[in-house]
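In the previous chapter we treated chains in isolation. Here, by contrast, the input contains two separate entities that must be folded as one system, with a combined length of 878 residues.
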Amino acid sequence: MLAVGGDAALLQTMRRWAGEADAAVEGAPDLPRGARLLAQGRWTVVLALLGDRPDEELTWWAEALRGVEGAPRLLAVADRPSMGLVLRAEKLGVLDLLPQPLRREDFLQALHRLRSAAGEVPVPLPDVAPHGVAPYALVGQSPAMVEVYKVIARVAGSTATVLIQGESGTGKEVVARAIHLNGSVASGPFVAVNCAAIPENLLESELFGHEKGSFTGAVARRVGRFEQASGGTLFLDEIADMGLALQAKILRAVQEREIERVGGTAPIPVNVRLIAATNRDLREAVAQGRLREDLYYRLAVVIIQLPRLTERGDDLLQLIAYFVSLFAEKCGKRIEAISDRAFETLRNRPWVGNVRELRNVIERAVIVATDATLRLEHLPEELRTDEAGLPGRSPTGLLTLADAEARHIARVLAHTGGQIGAAAEILGIHRNTLTRKVREYGL
Amino acid sequence: MSPGAKRLRPALRVEQALGLLPDIEVLAPLRALLLAASHPDERAKWSSSGPYLTVGKRAVLPAELREGMSQVLEQVQGHVGALYTACVEALECQQREDGAGAIAALRRAGGLEEEAGRLAQAKAWYEVALLLAERLPDRRPEVELLRALGGVCHALSRYAEGARYCQRGLALAEAEFDQAGAIAACEGLGLLALAQGELAGAQAWYQRGLRLAESREDAARVGQLTYRLGELLRSRGDLTAAAEYLARAHERFEAASDAAGLARTLDAQGQIDARLGRRGAALGAFREALAWRRRAPREASLEVTIRLHIAELAVDSERYLEAEEELRRAEQVAIAHNLGRQLIEIYTLMGALRGRQGEETGFVFFEQAIELCRIYGASPTTEAHVYHEYGVFRGRLGFKEEARAYLEKASGIFESLGQVAELERVQAELQRMSA
């Protein structure tokens, strides 16, 4: 164990306690010297005595330990830790947050928790045969996905415009690529445009191209994505993020099969199959006047609705196995199993970001994994939450509505770093209401 | 419209908000507040546009701007008030024929402008003060002003002009036996020579300054110039000598408990380790540098620099996820501390990272960096770096015509600034493209 901060007497005491648990303690007087020792050795635990800015220090340590050899766990000690700090520590996956003065029982119990975490049971990962949709793959045989495959098979052969709907990260682009690869224009290009990522003032030139000098920044002639996709498929992702003026131009391009470059004078014929995708409710966007109704009906000839990851049942393990093998190969590692606790944690996750979030989590885990089993400690800090450690649980294990609300608000606040405005936006309530609830629940 | 529908309306984005603000100087503090008060759109976090989010795509709540406005107005009022006070004080000093007092007041005003990042305005104050200082029998204020002007010209990429100021300052300081002034002038000349790619010249100036500082037993200056020499040798590729200088600088800074100096030295050491392929040692040095930076609370900009180096290290070892995470942390620090100019560096590297991954949509980072160059009045050097990397990015993805156009733009800027080393790098890239 590396203990950082505190005086010689405390270090001496910790050495004595650690001796009782067959552990050894090295000390560093302050954060910079602690960082130096951290880089020089291999540690199982880092015990950090937090100073007068505990929140910042806790975050600093969580970052500093990321990717460090041996994946040491963080044990933090703070003077009168606040509720906010406890939540922050929980979010960051801190092994334990102990109050000052440090007590022998707390210290030994934390070491015990660490050791019990080591007793995880490996579950072998299944072999997965993904359906390649370069550079991605379709993985899973859950009933919800089989339905999706059926629609892909039906529409791929036609030239109908397809609208793919689904939450963020459900794999809309993968499905679009699958339709393209199994359709009549498979030999043509597949061009994807993310409408939400591109600044509004550049989207038109990105889609239709521009002539040199047609606006500031048009340093050379650019062939737009419509032209690039000619003879193939144009995939417009996050279509609802497009301004009304541009929507009209898209509609014209789709209907008349010709476009005009920004600053250009002659129409250019294009022949593309259009697939659009959105994570929003387009009918509501039409109702709000943010999406042209005629464009909606032009796009929604065939609609494919993608399921959430939580609706895909056993696909989760398949997807984990697929991503593990993908990233382990990239990192030159051999990972054959996932521990029961790690899998349980992944299974209980709400997966707001669906498959994209899972992919991200597994990639990060594989990077820090040190042996053939993916363990809980390899998962990102924010996943390693200990539900039992949170207040507000009744003896039956079920929460009251108020407790659930308080816990959810606390989580959102921790997520926004305490920003009331941002938290209110996420929760979909007015900031004054949120301020009142924060006071009411003593958060 | 139902209340639910109202909630689902997309948030107002920074790019939309900035588009509504006329490009006039009086709104600059509001633009800065807009960026600092913005927050990531949570709905976009896991969307396919998530990896391409820039400050322009962050969400802004007008209500939060209104809340923060009074604080910004207070700061503006305080700043303008301090400038007016300095002016009146200078006039009062002139009236009672206290030239030194008037110069001090004007210099203070220049310093305030410099702190606020208004470099051209700072230069104007210093120039007025210099006119007065030239008439004083005591030449020390003139030496100090020449040094300040050299520094501000460096930041404005007006290197030749800055060197002229520093040369004058050095000649004057030596004539007046003002050793502190001479040391500072040598350091300024070294920095300006370095900016123009004259590495041998820069080394000679630093060494001259170091000799003077050692003879004067000025520990702080010795540490600073030793560090500068280490950094210079690192950029020349003489890593062994650089490491020696940095180790000596480290000792000096540690003895002086100079946390910022230690952070800078460790950051430079980390870059040497990275060049030598010692990834673990490099990461250790960078992490320790970040730990020291925590003890230098005014050095948020240094933290961004260190994080950029950690990200570069990760990019070089193809650890793209780690690079992205580090860049996102740097972005948070830059936005929270209103370090708009550093956001330019962050987005340039983010764009380069996407280029390595073959992601065409990465162009949005370069476009954002160019936009920020305009908003923050970035130096031509910074702008040229963005165009250089943009050209490399386009070239990597096969858009030769655009790549060439951006590289030629960068080349033109570097040529006009007389930055030989940078110019050669860009021209080598152009040649590679033609081959």
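Chain A touches chain B through 61 residues (CB under 8 Å). DSSP finds 18 helices and 19 strands in chain A. Compare these points with the single-chain example from earlier in the chapter.
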